[in-house]
Design brief:
- With 272 residues, this protein is an alpha/beta fold.
- Helices cover 32% and strands 23% of the residues.
- The chain contains nine helices and eleven strands.
- It has helices at 51-58, 80-85, 102-112, 117-130, 146-158, 176-191, 203-209, 227-230, 248-256; strands at residues 11-22, 25-31, 34-36, 40-44, 66-71, 74-75, 87-90, 164-168, 195-199, 212-217, 220-226.
- The strands form two sheets. It has a six-stranded mixed sheet with strand order 7-8-9-4-10-11, sandwiched between helices. Strands 1, 2, 3, 5 and 6 form a five-stranded antiparallel sheet that branches.
- Strand 1 (11-22) and strand 2 form a beta hairpin.
- The longest helix is centred in the last third of the chain and has 16 residues, at 176-191.
């Protein structure tokens, strides 16, 4: 539930002039971001834009060089444990204990969040069923497919009923069936009021799921707001008329600045 004592209770995430440097390189450069509670937020950018670095700072895994972060109205530098109790994270590299079974991993995660045995006993089988991971209870995580590991990682992120779910490339490397399961689940969760903060290179999925987006490149914020509003004004004719429906991919390329299309006869001439 929102913290009624906080003036920022309606906001899930806020950053103020957030900077993260590695030596002389600014991976995140004065990022000012606002994510409303209950939104499905897509955080987009080309490779090396600073997306994963930003998520690591928002979840307390990496300290910023400068700037301020509020998560659920709380300063993560001041109340890191309280913030971490109220969020769920699915990192890109997953970081599962692969010599455990799926049930053991879920149970361990639940205990780390302080859940009681009765709560664990109730939630664990429901999550395993939901993620279609209950059929082989003795199978070690090391034997899981990549898609199974993604679903288990999501189950671990959900078992303590977080208020915000951070997902770093959750659809990368999984098949269409696992992807459909995750998309349907995330849509249901946001309908119940969970805030989802998603990074993904699969723009079609982002366009289908996300209500709001932000785009960064070279660590700088280029655009942010409701997706439908941001796409207005892109792809106009010289007379100022809209050419037609604009996809997220078209908008993304317009904002980031993609390479110009190469003429067919100029492409890899040596292939003959």
């Amino acid at each position: 539930m929102p913290d009624s004592q906080s003036p920022n209770a309606a906001k899930a995430v806020e950053t103020f002039d957030l900077v993260r440097r590695f030596g002389d390189f600014a991976a995140v450069d004065n990022l000012n971001l606002t994510v409303q509670r209950g939104s499905f937020f897509g955080f987009l950018g080309p490779n090396g834009a600073g997306k994963s670095t930003t998520i690591k700072m928002l979840t307390g895994l990496l300290a910023p060089t400068s700037g301020k972060i509020l998560v659920l109205g709380r300063d993560i530098a001041v109340e890191p444990l309280e913030v971490k109790r109220r969020i769920g994270v699915v990192p890109e590299d997953l970081n599962l204990f692969e010599r455990l079974t799926g049930a053991e991993m879920l149970s361990f995660t639940a205990r780390m969040y302080g859940l009681q045995k009765t709560e664990i006993a109730e939630r664990l089988p429901e999550l395993l069923d939901l993620m279609e991971l209950r059929n082989e209870p003795k199978k070690l995580i090391v034997e899981y497919s990549h898609g199974m590991k993604k679903k288990l990682s999501l189950a671990c992120a959900l078992i303590h009923r977080p208020e915000i779910l951070f997902l770093d490339e959750p659809f990368e490397g999984i098949d269409a069936i696992a992807s459909r399961t995750l998309k349907d689940l995330l849509s249901r969760l946001t309908a119940r009021g969970l805030t989802v903060f998603l990074t993904s290179h699969v723009l079609e999925i982002v366009e289908r799921l996300c209500s709001d987006i932000a785009i960064i490149a070279q660590g700088k914020l280029l655009a942010a707001g409701p997706l439908a509003e941001l796409k207005k004004g892109v792809g106009l004719t010289e007379e100022g008329q809209q050419k037609g429906p604009v996809s997220l991919e078209e908008y993304f390329v317009e904002v980031v600045g993609g390479a110009p299309a190469t003429r067919e006869e100029e492409v890899l001439q040596w292939l003959g």
